[in-house]
Specification:
Elements (H helix, E strand, L loop, with lengths): L25 E5 L4 E3 L2 E3 L4 E12 L2 E10 L6 E7 L16 H5 L4 E5 L11 H15 L1 H4 L1 E11 L1 H10 L5 H4 L14 E5 L5 H7 L3 H11 L6 H10 L12 E6 L7 H13 L4 E6 L8 H4 L1 H11 L2
Parallel strand pairs: 6-7, 6-8, 8-9, 9-10, 10-11
Antiparallel strand pairs: 1-4, 2-3, 4-5, 5-7
Helix pairs in contact: 2-4
C-alpha cells in the first residue's frame, strides 16, 4: 500500500501510580461539596471505587473492570463504559482514574473496562469483550445500583474506535460473541462519546497506510492488510458500514492539532452519522492535539449530552 497518513489511534494515556491488584475492594470514598462551575451546579456526590471486578474469564485470562459508583443517590444511576486507548496493543483500565471521578460526582457511574489486546487477541475479540462487560453490568445492575436502561460508552483514541463500533452494532451477531455469558441481556448502548477515535473507510482507502500504522492494524487483525481477509476485517471494524437510524446518539470530540488521528476523519464520520438519521455532534477544539484532557475542557457539553440521553 502507498505510504501516507492513516488515521487510527496510536497514543496511549497512562496515569502513573494507578495500578491496583486487590479484587473488588471499596478502595476509597470522597465527599465533594456542591459547587457552581461555568454556570452549572455540580452535584458533588460522594463516590467509591470497586477495583478489579471480573466480568469474564477467557483463555486463562481474567477480564476485569473498575466501577466508580456515585453514593447517596436515591435512584439507580446511569453508567458510562470507559474504553482506554493504546494503539490496540497496550493501555489499561486505570487510565480512567483521573477522569472517572468527575462523572461519578455528577451522578453517573463509570465502568472502566479492560479488553484483550493485540496481538494476543485478534479482532473482533475486543468488541466481544466490551459487549460481554455491558451484559455483565446489566445482569448485575441491582447489585451495583445501576440503571440497566441507561448505559453509555466513551472511548479515547483506539478506545474511541471500539466505542464507536459498539455504538452502531446493536444486535449484530458476528460482533456480539459470548464472552462472559449473560446472553439474555442486551449489549446495546444509549449514548456514545468518541474521543479522537474516528476514522473514515473512504479516507483510509484514499490515503493508504504508513508502515508503522499498517503494522498495528496487522497485529489487531492477525493478517496482512493487502489480502481479502485484511480488507474484510477493515470493513467489519469501520463503523460507517454498520449505521442504522436506530443507533445510539453520538458526541465526537477532536482536537484540531491532532497529528495522530486526522480531524477530517471525525468530520467525515459525523456527516455520515447525520446522513443516516443518527443524532450526532462534533466538537472540534483548536487548542488540543491527541489529548484526553479535551474531555475536561468540554466537560459541560459532555454532561449535557449524557443528561439528555442517559437520564
Amino acid at each position: 500500500m502507498q505510504k501516507m497518513i492513516f488515521s487510527l489511534l496510536l497514543i496511549v494515556f497512562f496515569d502513573p501510580g494507578t495500578s491496583f491488584f486487590s479484587s473488588e475492594i471499596n478502595s476509597h470514598s470522597t465527599k465533594i461539596s456542591s459547587q457552581k462551575k461555568n454556570g452549572r451546579v455540580s452535584s458533588g456526590y460522594d463516590y467509591q471505587v470497586l477495583y478489579n471486578i471480573e466480568y469474564a474469564h477467557i483463555d486463562s485470562q481474567s477480564l476485569q473492570l473498575d466501577l466508580y459508583q456515585p453514593q447517596s443517590v436515591a435512584s439507580a444511576t446511569p453508567v458510562l463504559i470507559w474504553l482506554h486507548g493504546g494503539a490496540f496493543t497496550s493501555g489499561d483500565k486505570s487510565n480512567a482514574g483521573k477522569y472517572a471521578p468527575m462523572f461519578a460526582k455528577e451522578g453517573v457511574a463509570v465502568a472502566s473496562v479492560n479488553y484483550r489486546l493485540a496481538p494476543g487477541a485478534i479482532f473482533p475479540s475486543q468488541i466481544q469483550d466490551v459487549k460481554g462487560a455491558i451484559r455483565f453490568l446489566r445482569a448485575n445492575a441491582a447489585k451495583y445500583h445501576l440503571d440497566a436502561n441507561h448505559i453509555g460508552i466513551l472511548g479515547t483514541s483506539a478506545g474511541g474506535a471500539f466505542a464507536s463500533l459498539v455504538g452502531v452494532s446493536c444486535g449484530e451477531k458476528d460482533l456480539e460473541g459470548t464472552v462472559g455469558g449473560n446472553l439474555n441481556f442486551s449489549s446495546c448502548v444509549q449514548a456514545t462519546i468518541d474521543c479522537f477515535g474516528s476514522f473514515s473507510f473512504d479516507n483510509m482507502m484514499k490515503l493508504g497506510f504508513d508502515q508503522s500504522r499498517e503494522a498495528h492494524l496487522e497485529k489487531l487483525f492477525g493478517c496482512n492488510l493487502n489480502t481479502p481477509e485484511g480488507m474484510a476485517k477493515i470493513r467489519q471494524m469501520a463503523p460507517e458500514f454498520h449505521l442504522d437510524k436506530n443507533d445510539s446518539p453520538f458526541l465526537i470530540l477532536h482536537g484540531e492539532l491532532d497529528s495522530s488521528v486526522p480531524l477530517q476523519n471525525s468530520i467525515d464520520f459525523n456527516q455520515k452519522l447525520q446522513a443516516a438519521g443518527i443524532p450526532s455532534q462534533l466538537i472540534r477544539d483548536p487548542n488540543y492535539d491527541h489529548d484526553v484532557r479535551i474531555i475536561i475542557a468540554h466537560f459541560d457539553e459532555v454532561i449535557k449530552f449524557l443528561n439528555q440521553y442517559l437520564r
